[in-house]
């Protein structure tokens, strides 16, 4: 699932391409929106809220999308060949005179009144890359269930919005605690919250995510994606656990650098 920095970049690209321009074409390829035509409306802005995308349109409408695991928005010039996947995977087409935005494999696509956006995103905690970021509220929410495993609490978008499997694993490594340590036992949890904000801010405009100080492709991340490889800090083989209840949730950690409880089965959110 894309992390908050990826969704932020997607929103920025869509906003730069569409905002202030009138839609010349619209094709929403899901049954409940098949008869909707937004052509003629001006795009007001495209913004990210956690991992959600909100495309606001003239007339008080918002097209809400979520990428989940493999959804994507691509931008094309007039006449350019579409390369995001086969046509049967296209879920949304928004065209202006200059660019066409194509949404592929979007598992969430709905049209809301802009005044009703809270129906889609009101449950989210403070957005790490949003104007509503509040570290004190994020910390309060994170610690509300002190017995909850840290990795699970970080993934819960109701606590702080924008963290996925990559940042979950990297943050736990950087503060040197097990992802299964109860969040109430994390030393200086306010440091963890500040570090999450700093990492996403540092990476939001980068084409390649980096949490180490290195730009080499095989050394950009401390533990994520490095199962079986030596820890970049101590040389111990990095381990990976895939959630038994949710196969999409993988956790990477170094058992030497991150002492504490071992694997439990993180429930889905």
Automatic annotation (TrEMBL):
Residues 2-103 form the Formamidopyrimidine-DNA glycosylase catalytic domain. Its cofactor is Zn(2+). Its EC number is 4.2.99.18. It is an enzyme of class 4 (lyase). InterPro entries: DNA_glyclase_Znf_dom_DNA_BS (IPR015887), FPG_cat (IPR012319), FPG_N (IPR035937), H2TH_FPG (IPR015886), Nei2_N (IPR044090), Ribosomal_uS13-like_H2TH (IPR010979), Znf_DNA_glyclase/AP_lyase (IPR000214), Znf_FPG/IleRS (IPR010663). Transmembrane segments: none annotated. One of its GO terms (biological process) is base-excision repair. Pfam families: Fapy_DNA_glyco, H2TH, zf-FPG_IleRS. GO terms for molecular function: class I DNA-(apurinic or apyrimidinic site) endonuclease activity; damaged DNA binding; oxidized pyrimidine nucleobase lesion DNA N-glycosylase activity; zinc ion binding. Keywords: DNA damage, DNA repair, DNA-binding, Endonuclease, Glycosidase, Hydrolase, Lyase, Metal-binding, Multifunctional enzyme, Nuclease, Zinc, Zinc-finger. It catalyses: 2'-deoxyribonucleotide-(2'-deoxyribose 5'-phosphate)-2'-deoxyribonucleotide-DNA = a 3'-end 2'-deoxyribonucleotide-(2,3-dehydro-2,3-deoxyribose 5'-phosphate)-DNA + a 5'-end 5'-phospho-2'-deoxyribonucleoside-DNA + H(+). Residues 222-259 form the FPG-type domain. Belongs to the FPG family. PANTHER family: ENDONUCLEASE 8 (PTHR42697). This is DNA-(apurinic or apyrimidinic site) lyase. The gene is nei1.
